[in-house]
Amino acid sequence: MLLRRLWRLRSARLALGLLTVVAALALFGPLLEPQSPLAGSSAVLAHPSAAHLLGTDYIGRDVLSRLLAGSPVSVLGAVMVALIALVVGTIPGILSVYLGPAFEWITLRVVDTLIALPFLLFAVSMTALIGNGITEALVTVGILVAPQYYRVARAAALSVVRSEYVEAATIAGASVGWIIRKHFSAKVIPPVAVALASTMGNGLVVVASLTFLGIGVRPPEPTWGGLLASDLDYLAYQPYAPLFPTALILATVWAFNLLADALRDVTGQSGRVLVERGAERRPDQAAAPPGPRTAPAAAPGGIGTAAPDAVLTVDALRIANRATGEELVEGVTFSLRRGQVLGILGESGSGKTLTCKAILGILPPGFQVSGGGIALGGRDIAGFTRADWSAARGVRVAAVFQDPGSYLNPSQRVGRQVEEIFRLKKHLRRREARARVLALFEALHLRDPERVFEQYPHELSGGMLQRVLIASAIALDPAVLIADEATTALDVTVQAEILDLLLDLRDRMGLALVLVSHDLAVVAQLCEEVLVMRSGQVVERGPVSEILRRPRHEYTRLLVADHHRYGLERPARDASAPRSEGIEHVS
Amino acid sequence: MSPEPEALLDIEGLSVSYGHGPAATSALRGVSLRLGRGEAVGLIGETGSGKSTLARAVLGLVAPSAGRVTLAGQELTALGPRQWKDFRRQGVVQYVFQDPLRSLDPDLTVEDSIAEPLLVRGGRAGALSRSRVRELVGEQLRRMGLGAVLLGRHPGELSGGQRQRVAIARALITEPRLLILDEPVSALDAANRAQVLERLSQLRHGGVTLLFISHDLGSVAGLTDRIAVLYRGTLVEVDAADAIVQRPWHPYTRLLVGSAPTLARGAISRERRQQLRAELSAAGERLT
What we know:
- The structure holds 2 protein chains of 2 kinds.
- By secondary structure, chain A is of the alpha/beta class.
- Chain A folds into 2 domains: 2-28 and 62-276, Orthogonal Bundle (MetI-like fold), CATH 1.10.3720.10; 310-403 and 480-571, Rossmann fold (3-Layer(aba) Sandwich).
- Chain A has 22 helices and 10 strands.
- In chain A, the strands form 2 sheets. Chain A has a 6-stranded mixed beta sheet with strand order 6-7-8-3-9-10, with helices on both faces.
- In chain A, β7, α18 (492-509) and β8 (512-517) form a beta-alpha-beta unit.
- Chain A is elongated and about 105 Å long.
- Chain A starts with a helix and ends in a 14-residue tail after the last helix.
- Residues 276-307 and 572-587 of chain A have low confidence and may be disordered.
- Chain B is of the alpha/beta class.
- Among the domains of chain B are: 1-92 and 198-240, P-loop containing nucleotide triphosphate hydrolases (Rossmann fold, 3-Layer(aba) Sandwich); 248-288, no CATH class.
- Chain B has helices at residues 51-58, 81-89, 110-119, 130-143, 160-172, 190-205, 217-220, 241-246, 251-259, 270-282; strands spanning 7-18, 25-36, 40-44, 66-71, 74-75, 93-96, 178-182, 209-214, 226-231, 234-240.
- In chain B, the strands form 2 sheets. Chain B has a 6-stranded mixed beta sheet with strand order 6-7-8-3-9-10, with helices on both faces. A 4-stranded antiparallel beta sheet of chain B has the order 2-1-4-5, with helices on one face.
- In chain B, β4 (66-71) and β5 form a beta hairpin.
- The two termini of chain B are 40 Å apart.
- The relative contact order of chain B is 0.15.
């Protein structure tokens, strides 16, 4: 399965081919030796010839034979290092998640200590301590590499053990063995396989380095590293000599790394999609990258044009993907007067958010307005320069989105972040700016504004964060506020508070609102006019009351019917109401 | 419906707290609730009200600090780990998670995911043959309005709505008598929502006991016989769905009903909501 997937990658085929050659060398290399690797001859330091394809060394031994004879120790040594590390690292890594805090604490400390040790130095001193043999050296190196496996296995185990699908399996009565077999192995094996391939590469370098330093193997016995060491002594006679062992080491390491990369590419969920199906069947995940990190805000520029009736006009707007030419918004038209509330109803992928982003001039990269136009306060935004935008955002138009937390800097007090708008755009002093922010917070019914000012985003609830975001959005008295799914993630009671607040602002400041939502009831609650969007097109529009009473498009009909069948309206109208047991008040 | 339905699930004085010693916070305080056979009950509460904790306690995923849970005559709170496993394998109760993106193993095919609750039973006596399992999986998939072509696919190749329907098919494969659903439709688009709600209403009429957990009264009101309102770990009101909607008694319930957006443009006015919020916070309860 994994092999079949790997085989589809050219780099993996190359790596596997090379590694097959290397494996053959390691297993059968000694059989191919043209001469004995230990037998010297009178032809000392001979250049390559028909008799000695790669020449001879300082006591006349055939270099090719020595390279071949050195393959098993060098390659199998690397494999052994990786296998020792696999066993010593992976098992405690997985167990650390299951065996409780004591085991976890101890293994984590051991791993930290091992990582902190200088690698080669430690290996060298360990062989001094436990004996200068190849096995000792390999075990030492294996243990030193083990933390990498520990971490990889632990991370994978943690991700699985806390997942909902494991919980679902537990609820169904799955045993620990089942969970390991079914859910766990598929998550742990790929990263461990990647680590295995890459440590084999590293292991080869380490074994070569150790043998280069004369550790683990005694001189007559040939190894790639040892060959390199002796070649260096005779560089003046055979300047090309180090190339042969170096080339072998590099090619092998490169093949291991290539394989590790290929494994990384084809394993896991993304790999499966990447290799097997191509992109065509991936669900559309509304791949719009996040907008700017702060709510758009702007200076009170000298925009002198008198505001005509419409504060926002969108005329036959079309938005296309620059690369494919595919149109994602196809001809949206609406206009908004002061104090008016317009609803845009639609689902993810309907083009409603792209439309909003176009109005704010923050279309994600790769998208462009391909037709029609947008005017803010009577000015066409097509010709807007950077400075124009900076002057318009926050004044002519501002916005709040879902997930307010992501628009605030987590390491700064929220008050300071809102204050910045006044300091930068109105050039107020800190004290005045602070007073303005506190007044805003007060107006938005944030309890205890002084305290909220000093708090960090993580200390505030979702509803409070959204109020802070609204505060920064309306700080400069914008003409239009776009609320794109601004209450979707909130509790119903908090949602109602935020929606009430938006209506208050409309009443008090004459704010024009564009309320974008997937929720028919939310739109019905607040808006006079509604646009229903579906796949980039406006499929229905008109006064809310009209659309609720006589929905024409199939999608709108479905939404309305849905509410009447399952929503709050249902019990209220239900004549055959279920039994009433009176009020049970338990407290 | 019978006047005194025999209880399928009986929760008595259930309390759950997290943490130990002075740092312990109590998530549920003395909650009592009975679900009759074939009844559909909505459990409504805001974030942190303890509604998910209640479900987790019923499923044995968290240990209650006090109280008793009895399901289908079996006292769950008295079970040891082994007995829990045996009980779960009967498939009497199943759970549907809120987020279909996380509740399916990305490495399992749709078929393997749905079949899992049957397959975990292992090769014990009475185990189903592989072909019978296939048949059952296909049937559940069909009933969720999904085609057999999906069987070999992985969750990454499905839309969110399809995943949630697969997750519900997985929960239904053991033919549970109690199905607990945590915001089952809040992440779905209109078409998928309609399909899921339709299936749930079939189940309801087919005699499966349903416990809907939601923060939004509006999303489940039409599917439930009774609604229980949870506020800060305490059940403040339990009544027939229409009574809760039309004559809410507790201030929190009144605010909840008044906050739920409806097509009829608001059950109560902005000013009234403002009043209720003040009333609740005056009672020492902070909403936000």
